[in-house]
TrEMBL record:
Lineage, top ranks: Eukaryota, Fungi, Dikarya, Ascomycota, Pezizomycotina
Annotated compartments: Membrane
Membrane topology of this protein: Multi-pass membrane protein
Protein name (record): Uncharacterized protein
Source taxon at top rank: Eukaryota
Major localization listed first in the record, in broad terms: membrane
Region described as Disordered: 271-334
Biased composition (Polar residues): 324-334
Transmembrane segments: 29-49, 56-74, 86-107, 128-146, 166-186, 207-227, 242-262
Record keywords: Membrane, Transmembrane, Transmembrane helix
């Protein structure tokens, strides 16, 4: 994974019109393309087995990482081709955003499955994930704009540095959103201690620890990218591909594998673990759609006697969700 000795022959670097400023290791590129392809096929299979449509997001992240190294191989073999070089360069910068978005989506579903209120700080679970995904898309657009500006044809050093600065701004925004998200994840963990049934806590914590681990790995990768480009195009870090493999690709591969091992679909199985549809939530009422943890709690406090129920006191239980509506059953309070 390190550059060859400068005195050795290197077709990718020695060509007068090459896109490469150092001699890349094609063997390492093949190896990582293979590893990312393995986790890609695993995520596709798991999304089908567990029937979790939202897992296409993590599969897309694995696909972009795989394509990144396929294009890198093509660029090494055809070092004068600008298109291959631009493709792998842009993909390696942007692919982690898919993994980041998936983390946001997973925690939103955890809030629904493992709390009674389906809320964190007053934000409903289905909106919680949506808001952060939209922020992630914004960071994605900023980073994409910067990456495309820094990888165009016949650019001056000033133009390249401007593109890198825009990209770094997008990366900085991504980290700000991650820090805010971690704060909400910690709040969720505290809420989970009080609301999650004992039998569900071990699996909830396993998945939450994976969420924390992935966010830490993404943060390390962000710090690496900020350090790498803080010195502009004169930085020596891009001239040593070992740094990229250690502080970018290996970290993102680890994120993908962690979600293979602790897959959300295995710990939140079944159709009932999915968010209620908008129609179902509307049928239940704006403030009446509860989290799934409510199903395992004791019945609500005694309510006033109902004349339709023989004067006995009844309280609402967990809403029963069918294909069209959410309805509340009733049981006698004792």
């Amino acid at each position: 994974m390190t550059a060859h000795n400068s005195t050795a022959t290197c077709a990718a670097k020695d060509d007068v019109n090459t896109q490469w400023s150092f001699c890349p290791n094609v063997g390492a590129a093949y190896f990582y393309a293979f590893l990312f392809a393995l986790t890609l096929f695993a995520h596709i299979a798991q999304s089908i087995i567990y029937r979790k449509g939202y897992s296409w997001v993590i599969a897309m992240g694995a696909l972009w990482q795989t394509l990144c190294y396929i294009f890198r191989i093509l660029s090494i073999n055809q070092p004068t081709n600008q298109s291959w070089y631009t493709a792998w360069f842009v993909l390696i910068l942007l692919a982690p955003l898919w993994i980041n978005a998936y983390v946001y989506m997973v925690l939103g579903r955890m809030v629904y499955n493992f709390t009674t209120s389906a809320k964190i700080l007053g934000i409903k679970a289905w909106r919680f994930g949506l808001y952060f995904v939209l922020l992630d898309i914004f960071a994605f657009l900023v980073q994409a704009a910067g990456a495309s500006l820094a990888s165009g044809n016949n650019l001056t050093n000033t133009q390249i540095e401007r593109g890198l600065h825009i990209y770094m701004g997008g990366v900085g925004l991504q980290e700000v959103f991650i820090i805010c998200f971690i704060g909400l994840a910690v709040r969720f963990q505290r809420q989970m201690r009080m609301e999650t049934p004992m039998q569900d806590k071990p699996r909830a914590l396993r998945l939450l620890y994976v969420v924390y681990a992935v966010l830490v790995l993404i943060t390390i990768r962000i710090i690496f990218r900020l350090v790498e480009y803080s010195q502009g195009i004169t930085s020596g870090i891009p001239q040593h591909e070992a740094y990229q493999y250690v502080f970018d690709s290996t970290l993102m591969l680890t994120c993908l594998v962690l979600f293979n091992i602790i897959h959300p679909g295995r710990l939140m199985p079944g159709k009932e673990s999915d968010f209620p549809s908008r129609k179902q939530r509307k049928a239940a009422g704006k403030n009446n759609t509860m989290g799934r943890a409510a199903d395992a709690l004791p019945l609500h406090e005694r309510s006033s006697p109902s004349p339709d129920m023989g004067g006995e006191s009844y309280g609402p239980t967990y809403p029963k969700v069918d294909g069209t509506s959410v309805s509340y059953g009733y049981a006698t309070n004792t």
